[in-house]
Design brief:
The structure is a homodimer. By secondary structure, chain A is an all-alpha fold. Helices cover about 75% and strands about 0% of the residues of chain A. The N and C termini of chain A lie far apart (about 70 Å). Chain A binds a DNA duplex through α3.
Chain lengths: ~190, ~190
DNA sequence: AGTATTATGGAATAATTGTTCCAGAATGGT
DNA sequence: ACCATTCTGGAACAATTATTCCATAATACT
């Protein structure tokens, strides 16, 4: 009946996501996003909506990617608890030249805009999921519940700092290494106490 | 001879700095900044320059504040080494309702713009100064040089993550507490090895 | 007090922003 | 092959952006 859409919505959202990820919400003009996506104004406004709607789609896609990874690693019962954390960190911080550096969620928290203020609770929820994933790991590794809670908090915070380090230009391999060192340190602490 | 400037340049830069700090570079319009500073367009363009020049002044003021604190605490030979770190953390993360949350340097690293790209090396230098301050502390506390380097790196990264946590809405008291816990953890590790 | 000098406020400008709209192109079903 | 439907590209729009400019107000010195 009707002419079908020429483009794949997921594909163009991905492209827009990478642009937002690199440049931030405010610095990304519709024009620049369209150039990146390779579609025209009307196509965007007809299929997805305005800039805010586009950003929400992008952020949601980013978050669901992170949450999938959390489920597949940190919350994966089939893996030994230590491997869960190591795999999560390794996959999260492996060098990937085709992706922007840092983290769209962290970047968004560091900006401020009417729209972004609304989205912060959603972002917080995903980051809390990550932290609770680490909590599950440390609860396996450690008898003391308080230590597990504290260790999970430190890992979650260290990861956010690691995302800032990437933006600062520190190589991902170094960033990953620090994270693994901290995890070992916190695990050893567990071992000592056992 | 000439009519003197009605406003104090440092004062208006401080006001602009707090606005940039809260909202980021791109989201801060000249109009909003002028309202905050309480001066007119021409006054700004005559005394300081355009938006980029203003931002550079603001960032420089922010950085010099941080560097002064680093000198007064982390690099203060008059203090016991552990106190240096504790004082730095406590003063950096004490609750202060009159200041925006997070850190202008971290926020700037997470944005991207032609101007901001130029400023990243400067920001990196201040952050490296902070890390070297912690390195000095850990070198006092610890025999193993490698451990000191690693611990300083972890503290520096944790602080950046702590700034993101503040943006996420986590209370400063909690954020500070985590930092003190990590510092203790790294110091204890030192003690164990000694 | 007069004058030279400079800050000040607001109008004016040009560029860019996000958004809407419309004519035409393209397609799937009949 | 036609037609209804919907996507597409670009023009058009209003709002906002950063910046410049000029006439006026305000001061310090003689």
């Amino acid at each position: 009946m009707a002419r079908p859409q020429k483009f794949d919505e997921n594909v163009i959202v991905t492209k827009a996501m990478m642009y937002f990820w690199e440049h931030g919400y405010s610095s990304s003009s519709i024009q620049a996003l369209l150039d990146e996506m390779g579609i025209s104004r009307s196509s965007l406004y007809n299929s997805i909506g305005d800039k805010d709607a586009l950003f929400q789609h992008c952020l949601a896609q980013f978050q669901s990617g992170v949450e999938r990874l959390i489920q597949a690693t940190l919350l994966n019962d089939a893996l030994p608890s230590k491997d869960r954390a190591v795999q999560f960190l390794t996959l999260s911080f492996s060098e990937n030249p085709s992706l922007p550096t840092g983290c769209l969620m962290v970047n968004t928290l560091c900006e401020d805009d009417a729209l972004l203020a609304e989205l912060k609770p959603t972002i917080a929820r995903t980051l809390e999921l990550m932290e609770s994933g680490f909590l599950a790991v440390f609860e396996d590794l450690l008898d003391d519940k308080n230590h597990a809670v504290q260790s999970a908090r430190l890992m979650a915070t260290q990861i956010k700092g690691a995302r800032v380090n990437q933006r600062q230009g520190i190589p991902s391999s170094d960033v990953l290494n620090d994270l693994l060192v901290l995890f070992d340190c916190l695990s050893e602490r567990a071992a000592n106490l056992k």
